[in-house]
Amino acid sequence: MKIDKTSLFTDEVRAEIDKHIAKYPADWKQSACMPALTAVQEMNDGWLTRELMDQVAAYLDMPAIAVYEVATFYSMYEHKEVGRHKICLCTNISCMVNNSDSILEHLNKRLGISFGEVTDDGKFSIKEVECLGACGGAPMMQIGDHYYENLTPEKIDSILEELE
Predict the structure, then answer these.
(1) Within 1-77, where are the H helices?
(2) Would you state the torsion angle of the CA atoms of residues 31, 32, 37, 40, taken in this order, to the nearest 10 degrees?
C-alpha cells in the first residue's frame, strides 16, 4: 500500500527531514533516521509514540523495526511523556563520586518526583543518564541544550526558578 507522504507530519517537520535526507545519496534515505526521529520527537512535545516511529519508517522507506532499533538504542529518544523541561542527571562515576546522589535527593524534594516521573503540572521530568562528557564539572545535568556543572542545591534552586 502506497502512503501519501504529504499526509505525514507537518510541512515544517517534512522540510527538516528532507534537509537531512538531501545529505545522503538517493538510495540511502534511511541514513536520516536519527534526525528524523529528533524532528518528530520535538514536534510531539519531546517524546515518540509507536505511530510516529511507524510514520518515520514510512517516510524514509525503511522497515519499522529498523526505526524502533534506533529509537530504543539511543537514550535521547523518549517513549513516554516528559516534562517541558527534561532534567537529565548524570549518575556516572565522576558525578557519582561528586555527590550526584545528593543532587537527585534535592531534586526529589524540590520537585516531588524521581527518575522517570513528571511533575503534576507537566513542567519537569527527571531522567537518569550516563556520562554526558562533562566530568570536569561533576556533578552535572543537562536541560534541553544547556549543561549545568558543579551543581549544588543552591545552584539547582536558581536554575529551576529561572525555568519556572
Answers:
(1) 11-21, 33-43, 50-59, 64-73
(2) -160
C-alpha cell at 22: 538531501
Cell numbers given for 133: 562528557
Is the separation of the CB atoms in 119 and 113 below 8 Å? yes
Q: How far apart are CA 114 and CA 83, in angstroms?
A: 12
Which SS3 state, helix, strand or coil, does residue 115 take? strand
* pLDDT tens profile 29-65: 999 999 999 999 999 999 999 999 999 999 999 999 9
Parallel/antiparallel/unpaired status of strands 124-129 and 146-148: unpaired
Query: Of 53, 62, 65, 138, whose CA–CA distance to 103 is shortest?
Result: 138
Would you tell me how many other CB atoms lie within 10 Å of the CB of residue 139? 26
